[in-house]
Design a protein that fits this description.
The chain has 182 residues and is α+β, with helices and mostly antiparallel strands. The protein has a domain of 104 residues: Gcn5-related N-acetyltransferase (GNAT) (Aminopeptidase, 3-Layer(aba) Sandwich), CATH 3.40.630.30. The chain is built from three helices and seven strands. A seven-stranded mixed β-sheet has the order 1-2-3-4-5-7-6, with helices on both faces. The protein is globular. InterPro entries: Acyl_CoA_acyltransferase, GNAT_dom. This is N-acetyltransferase domain-containing protein. It holds the Pfam family Acetyltransf_10.
Length: 182
């Protein structure tokens, strides 16, 4: 299910990845993803039902990268279009959202380590066998390098173009994330 994966340098940082409260994600979500919106506007109605994670450096109290994970099925209208996955409607899925890394720490493997952690949480905590997201078109190649594939047609949120991406969480599909950098 996963595509060709390119090897890159692993993060040179000693990271601590931990579950955090949704409020600890909001400042980074807003500053990286939607800087023109207020912090209140980047809070999701479903945030109270999600699992939220942050990546921390030893000298930082605030996370340098955040991501939120939800027990969310694949969109119904897309199920027929996902021929790469056998019977997706029969497989439990999880969705990650609001994935943001401080620009000072991008392209250093931190986002990849955080994504890998969330993939394991989706599999082990939520029992998911598929993980998916709405990826900005500008980030879709990054997700593709980490084994995710596009499904469905591009669409817009506000003035930003997105595409849906997914990955099988079968044991043989997740090994590809180990040596990637953001």
């Amino acid at each position: 299910m996963s595509g060709e994966v390119q090897s890159e340098v692993k993060s040179p940082f000693v990271l601590r990845i931990a579950r955090i409260d949704v409020d600890a994600t909001l400042e980074l979500r807003q500053s990286v993803l939607w800087p023109t919106l207020s912090i209140a506007d980047v809070r999701l109605t479903e945030d109270d039902k999600g699992l939220h994670f942050g990546a921390f450096l030893p000298q930082h109290e605030k996370p340098i990268a955040v991501i939120s994970l939800f027990d969310t099925p694949l969109p119904d209208q897309e199920l027929a279009m996902t021929s790469e996955i056998d019977s997706p409607s029969q497989r439990k899925s999880a969705r990650f959202r609001k994935f943001a890394c401080d620009p000072m720490y991008q392209n250093q493997g931190i986002g990849t380590e955080l994504l890998q952690h969330v993939i394991e949480a989706a599999r082990l905590t939520l029992g998911a066998s598929i993980i998916w997201c709405d990826a900005r078109i500008t980030s879709s190649a990054w997700y593709n390098k980490r084994g995710m594939i596009q499904f469905g047609d591009p669409f817009y949120k506000k003035d930003v173009q997105y595409v849906r991406m997914m990955m099988s969480l079968d044991a043989n599909a997740c090994h590809c994330l180990g040596d990637q950098s953001v």
